[in-house]
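2024-03-11 09:14:02 DEBUG pipeline.ingest accepted 1 chain
2024-03-11 09:14:02 DEBUG pipeline.ingest length=150
2024-03-11 09:14:03 DEBUG pipeline.predict start
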Amino acid sequence: MNKQSILALSNDKPRKYGVIGLFTVIAISIATVGCGGDEVSMATAEEQRTVARENSKLVAKMFISENPMYNSFKVIPNGDSTITRQCPQGDGWASLKLINEDNQTIGIKCSTYSIGIGCMTSAEFSKKAYAQQDGTCNKDIAYPLPKIAG
């Protein structure tokens, strides 16, 4: 090899390692997308699920008390399935069931954060504008969810 070839090779090494370094940085960046950021801890998400479940259960009991036709029904609570580490406030809705002694069940949707919004039957809910919120993260809901006083 002549002197020019050796100099050309030695000049390529920094560029070669610079490109490898750049690809390494890009690969690490891609691999860590979604890590950290706006996520809450698993414990916080679980606390939010508990608050949403308790709130919706309380709202459902109020719904029963205001609708005498459901007085013989008990509440089977479920939480807000959209509460995640990325969306700790969820969509604001929980699906619950009312069941009576004859095992007749009624599906209801209850707010997880507002006693004023309350509950409605699943059939009624599907006809309301609220149905568009169901299953999507609702950033308009306060985080952390307020505990509804009963």
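2024-03-11 09:14:41 DEBUG pipeline.report The chain has two domains: 1-33, 42-132.
2024-03-11 09:14:41 DEBUG pipeline.predict end
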